[in-house]
Amino acid sequence: MFRALLIVCLAHFTIGETISGRVLLNGSSSSTTRLPSGCQLIVKVTSTAMADGPVTVLGSTQYSNVVSFPTSYSLTYTPPVDVPIDFQAVSAHVTCPNGARYLNDHRIPVPKENGVDTVVNINVIDIRGGK
Ligand SMILES: *[C@@H]1O[C@H](CO)[C@@H](O)[C@H](O)[C@H]1NC(C)=O
Asked: What is the residue range of the signal peptide feature (predicted)?
């Protein structure tokens, strides 16, 4: 059972696509914002089969000590053949030990001209205040 799962995973990996880019705070690619130590970044590619259907994680990557914005990420995932690209999106979430949190404030679709290597910059905002 485990071996079968592993083979499936490896098969997915070999035919996966790569999405990479930078996570920007407030859309700024020029100014650097330092983060407290121990901040964690998770970037995910998700899909919903229908507009309001359940969310499936297609791929994700995690960085355990992000020191500043902008920061780079890269992940590999397998685009599902049965889900239109319109229903696939990229998201980023940063959480810090001091309670600071950063999330993308808008839905970020996977670009339609999705090739083997796709660059997607993700804009995040500070949501510490729970807004
Ligand atoms: C980002 O934008 C928010 C809301 O406008 C602002 O309070 C914050 O200071 C900005 N942060 C940086 C580093 O520009």
From this structure: 1-16
